[in-house]
Structures are given as structure tokens and as C-alpha cells.
Amino acid sequence: VLGQSPEALVGGLTETTPGGRKTRERKLEVSMESVSCSAAAVRTGDMESQRDLSLVPERLQRREQERQLEVERRKQKRQNQEAEKENSHFFAATFARERAAVEELLERAESVERLEEAASRLQGLQKLLNDSVFFLAAYDLRQGQQALARLQAALDERRRELQPKKRFAFKTRRKDAASSTKVDAAPGIPPAVESIRDSPLPKKAEGDLGSSWVCGFSNLDSQVLEKRASELHQRDVLLTELSNCTVKLYGNPNTLRLTRTHSCKLLCGPVSTSVFLEDCSDCVLAVACQQLRIHSTKDTRIFMQVTSRAIVEDCSGIQFAPYTWSYPEIDKDFESSGLDRSKNNWNDVDDFNWLARDMASPNWSILPEEERNIQWD
């Protein structure tokens, strides 16, 4: 013990005495616990880092997909604009050439055969306009429709001029009186329906379409309404603010517009260009047309024949099925309309509120076959 420093004596006591061994063991335990905590912290940090790393590629992949979709949309839009520009130039040149040919035939028509040739070319002109509705501007479409209406009127006038005149004959007063009471009467239409057929449209509604070719019904409830081919031929039809009505349109209208209508049944012959629905609900329709657009409409069943693609926007509960309505003169009206009866995209619908390509839109569906048995009459 003599000659040793106090530090050595303390160190010896720490190593040799039982108290020193206990102190060392406690130090070792504390060190092991620290190491364990550090290792656990490292493992936790590694797991969080791995989880973050697993999420980062998913987010990046989703962003990349969205970016590619946007690039594809812009590319498609640019291509569509270029195609529409080219198609518009082609349409303008072809329409002008065919219109001039029809006008020349009508001016020089001295026989029924020449008139039939003019009628055939006019039908081809109508089909050209129908096929061009998708890319034409509204102004160009309206100009084309008005030109066709003028040509059709000129054709009808020339037909009347070439018809052989009837021989003069005396008629009894009774027959004259009877015939005068039946002017403008459509066969098979009850008097109640006849009184409703020509209910005038409000001036504002007529002004909206801006044409003397407008006809239709408005502000009626629980009525049966009808118009015949002579009243509808190549005219714009407007049906607005109807409730619980049945509307039958026999013939070939130029356009059809149905707005603010509830719980109605509409049956319409072939429409040369477009059918437009807006703010309708709980309706059943049978329409054939070149283009169908439906806006802000719900719970409506549509039996249709459409040569392009139907469009829905801000709609819900819309159901589609093939066009099944028929009447005696429908073949003639289809021929006059220029619609291709062999082409029907009734189940090919674009929803402007649903852009996902891998999932069906919840806003429209196919009407099941067992629910398509509709009594039209």
C-alpha cells in the first residue's frame, strides 16, 4: 500500500471490491441499453425512409401519367383542329359546287326526269351537310341549312309548275262547303288534338332560333300533340315547357330542340341534323338524327339512331336503346333526311363530365332489353 498514489488506491478498490464490480456492471447495462435504443432508432428511421421511398415513385409515376395524358390531349386537339380546318375547306368547295349544280337543274328543268335528278342531287347535298355537322362552325351550319331550305322550296315550286293542270269542273255548293271545312285537317287526328296542333310558340322562343322555319309546342300540360310531314319538312322544331304530354312528330324536321320538359313521351321521325335536349327529366324519347347532345337532363330513356356519337353533359340517369318507332311513311322520311340507316352508334356515347377511359361513366347506361318494350301508340 505504501508508495501507491491515491488514484491507484481508488482504482484498485473499484476493480477489486464488490462495490466496484457492481458499478462496472451498471455501466455496462447502461451502455447496452443505449446501444439497443440507438439500433431501434436506426431501424425505425430506415423503415420510415423505405416507406417514403416507396411512396415517391408512386407519386412520380402518377404525375408522369397525368403529364402524358395532357400531352396526348393537346396533341389530339391540335390534330382535330387541323383536320377540321381541312374538312371545312373541302366542305365549302364541295357544297358550293353541288348547290350550283342543283340550282342549274332547277332553272332548266322542263321535265319530271330533270326534277328527279335535281331532287337526287339535293339529297346528296343534305347528306354532305349531315356528315359535316361535327366540324362545321355554327354559322356555317346555319348557312348550309338555309341554303338547303331554299333549294327544297324551289324544287317543290317547280314540281307544282310541271304538274298537269286539272280540268275545270263545276262542283256543288255542298261539296265546296264540306271541302272548305277540311282544309289543313290531318287524317286520323281527333278534334281535340287538331285544336292543339297549331298552338303558337311564344315570340321569345321563335326569336331564339331566329327563323321563320320554326314550329313546335310550348307551355302545355297533359296533352296529346301531333304534327304531320307537310308541317315539319326541313323545319326547326322547338318543344319547350311541356309536362305529361305525348308528342308525335311525323316527317323529316331539320333540327329538334327539347327544353324544360318533364314526364313527356316524344316520338320523332328522322331529323336531318341535330337533336338537343336541355333541362329535361323523366322523359321517354324516340329520335333518329345525325348528332344528339343532352345537357342538364336526368332520369330519361332515349331510343335513338345516331350516325355520329351522342354527347351527354351534366346529366344523370340517362339510358339508351336502339330506335324502334315506326309509321307508314318513315322510309320516305329517312330518304329525305339523308341519314344512313345502316349506321347507328346508339351505344357509343361521350360524357364530357367523365374523362376516365378505363371506367364506365356512372351518368348513362344501356337500357336492359327486358325494359325496352315500350307501347308507342
Strand content: 15-25%
CATH class of the domain at 216-354 and 362-371: Mainly Beta
Question: In percent, how helical is the residue content?
Answer: 40-55%
CATH architecture of the domain at 216-354 and 362-371: 3 Solenoid
Low-confidence stretches: 6-17, 168-212
Rough outline: globular
Structural class: alpha/beta
The rounded distance between the terminal residues' Cα atoms is: 127 Å
The strand count comes to 14
Adjacency order of strands in the biggest sheet: 1-3-5-7-9-11-13
- Return the average pLDDT rounded to an integer: 75
Radius of gyration: 39 Å
Using the coordinates shown, work out and report the CATH topology of the domain at 216-354 and 362-371: Pectate Lyase C-like
- How many helical stretches? 9
Largest sheet, described in full? 7 strands, parallel
Instruction: Spell out the helices and strands N to C.
Output: HHHHHHHEEHEEEEEEEEEEHEE
